[in-house]
Write a structure and sequence with these properties.
There is one protein chain. The protein has 320 residues and is mostly helical. The protein has one domain. Helix 5 packs parallel to helix 8, helix 7 runs antiparallel to helix 10 and helix 10 packs antiparallel against helix 11. The protein is globular.
């Protein structure tokens, strides 16, 4: 009788052709163990989808972690704006007092001769006091965005840089805006001896005021008006409220610099409208900042050229 042990896959029989047939898994009809699918998950792009992946696709689920949502910019609430304005007013008064106190302490040591009552027309003191005011205000905004709204400052204030070409066009638009304002101010009647021009008493004074106007003021003013206040008014009533409200407040801030020079105040209002429209149309704070910086830099540059490097200030009110 024929020995059938070699055909049944008995151990020790060499029959490789029948190895796959004699597997216990096939003979018993059981499902393959999960480890049989593991090679499919470890062969990169060449691997076929696993059962779990096919099931997740059928159910509309994803195995890979989803991209975290982009945080929305801060929309300042009424209470936050009220607290910010209260802090700004209190700190404005306190910073003036501290600046005067610091001057009184340093005056005998440094040999300064300007009396304290005349410091409001001293350009170096004005610039210094402005910087003393700006620093805590900036810190306050950073802390509110970080601690209250849990966002980085760039996201919270909508600070998004445009493409290079668009940035150049914005700077050129700021130059053009300054030219238009200058031409209108020349054609329209107005007083010439307003407080702002009285600060241009020396080359050092013009460098100090110009540095503040170009390097610091555009960022801080845009941060407050087109950042904090614009966000609040936009939340309150949309762009129809945010654009004119921030423009009017912007002009009101600059009124003490041009007291009585109503043409200049009106032109500042127009500039504020342009800056607010730029903020509304782009959804970013950077365009208005670039426009503002180029606008101020154009006036300082023209003053530099017109006075031969700030050496001939006789044509400016308040000049020597």
């Amino acid at each position: 009788m024929e020995d059938r042990r070699t055909s049944t896959g008995e151990p020790g029989a060499a029959n490789p052709a029948n190895d796959s047939v004699s597997s216990p898994v096939v003979e018993t009809g059981e499902a393959p163990p999960l480890r049989a699918e593991l090679p499919l998950l470890t062969h990169g792009h060449a691997a076929a989808p696993s059962l779990a992946e096919e099931e997740s696709e059928r159910l509309g689920l994803a195995l890979l972690p989803s991209t975290p949502p982009v945080p929305r910019p801060v929309e300042w609430k009424g209470l936050d704006v009220a607290l910010f304005l209260a802090f700004s007013v209190v700190w404005l008064l306190l910073s003036q007092f501290l600046s005067l106190a610091g001057y009184a302490v340093l005056r005998p040591l440094m040999g300064w001769h300007t009396p304290p009552m005349a410091l409001t027309e001293n350009p170096i003191f004005v610039v210094t006091a402005q910087l003393v005011f700006y620093a805590p205000v900036l810190t306050y905004i950073i802390l509110v965005v970080a601690l209250q709204y849990h966002q980085p400052l760039g996201v919270g204030i909508r600070w998004r840089w445009p493409a290079f070409g668009q940035g150049v066009r914005l700077l050129l638009a700021g130059v053009l805006l300054a030219m238009v304002v200058l031409a209108a101010s020349t054609l329209l009647p107005d007083r010439k001896d307003f407080p702002m021009e009285k600060l241009f008493t020396s080359p050092l004074a013009v460098y100090a005021v110009g540095g503040l106007a170009v390097l610091v003021a555009p960022f801080m003013e845009e941060l407050v008006f087109r950042g904090v206040l614009f966000s609040f008014f936009e939340r309150l009533g949309g762009f129809g409220i945010a654009v004119p409200a921030t423009a009017v407040l912007f002009a009101a801030l600059h009124y003490p610099e041009y007291a009585g020079a109503w043409t200049h105040v009106f032109m500042i209002l127009v500039v504020g409208l342009v800056l607010s429209v730029a903020r509304a149309s782009t959804g970013s704070l950077v365009p208005s900042f670039l426009l503002h910086t180029a606008y101020n830099a154009t006036f300082i540059g023209l003053l530099f050229l017109g006075t031969h490097g700030f050496k001939n200030l006789h044509g400016i009110a308040g000049g020597p």
